[in-house]
Amino acid sequence: MLKNFYADLHIHIGQTKYGRPVKITASKTLTLTNILEEASERKGLDMVGIIDAHVPAVQEELEQLIESKRAYEMEEGGVRFDRTTLILGSEIEIYDDHCKGPVHVLCYFPDIHHLKVFTGWLKGRMKNIHLSSQRFYGTAPELQQKVKELKGLFVPAHVFTPFKSLYGRGVKKSLKEIFDPNLIDAVELGLSSDSHMADHISELHDYTFLTNSDAHSLKKIAREYQLVKMKQPTFTELEKVLHQKDQRMVIVNYGMNPKLGKYYTTVCEKCLVSVGNHDQFCPSCSHSRFIKGVSDRIQELADRDREDIQRPPYIYQAPLEYIPTLGPKTYEKLLKLGTEMYILHQADRQELISASSEKIADHILAMRNGKMEFTAGGGGKYGKIKTD
What we know:
By secondary structure, the chain is of the alpha/beta class. The chain contains 12 helices and 17 strands. Strands 1, 2, 3, 4, 5, 6, 7, 8, 11, 12 and 15 form an 11-stranded mixed sheet that branches. β4 and β5 (84-94) form a beta hairpin. It is globular.
């Protein structure tokens, strides 16, 4: 029998159990154990992908959790912790001779054994195996082939963001410029795009779209995620989901409205004022260099209409922390109702009012029903929820 599960497959490690940084820009509270506890007890996620699991100290902490009986490896891949399955992953930067700029990719593996083999292989092709998102010294197809040899999954990350992404920096027009398209298992959209926008690019039509948080703090976990249909939350089942086999599939993508993303609009590099497609100078400060927004970049790449494409619904949502007037104390009161997934998807209006206020309850319900309005972000600044 197939069931529905919530999954966020892009979460960073900020610090090891020894206090050493992994993702430099991530919170120190993002340790492996803290992430698993947050995902299981507060977020209500059934599956998480930790994409700094190639780091030896992270693997040590995971093995200690298994030794202490707090976690165990599953027969069909993945590590179970309480209600949540951990998918072991690694984010890697590719910048070979075919790339116009650096590109981030996500590599996932079925178990600790295959992950450790991958770590050993990376040591000779990476300057610092102990940090996140490090540059890979080799070609993109070479990395793809190794991931497949180790029974892994290969996913280009946040493919439209202006920095360190496939379309934002890596290629002029097509993913074929650097990747073997047959060795890509899915595509991660990123915070400033959605299915409707991405499906104007014909070469993406056959790939499953993922919406993940790219969390750099515990609160940001599940700011984007997906509802997937599968038998149980395991690596084998996830692989079937990505390739839509045996009725396994992504049912719904939940993501922030692209306008909330911090790279949606094109802005002046210097003062971050929005600029038009045909502007040569910033209307505010006369600066001549811009950060191209995701919406404008997709318009450049678009080569088809979307009308004939069938995709799962893409429902605009935002983390609870984005809701106006919802502070830390109210957040804790809401969690007494259940996990964030319960609050966002199941709690009725009366329950929400009992733990917060009518205004907050109405904001949550409006977001659940896709009726929230947003102001656009750009140039590294997030958009905002409109309150009027």
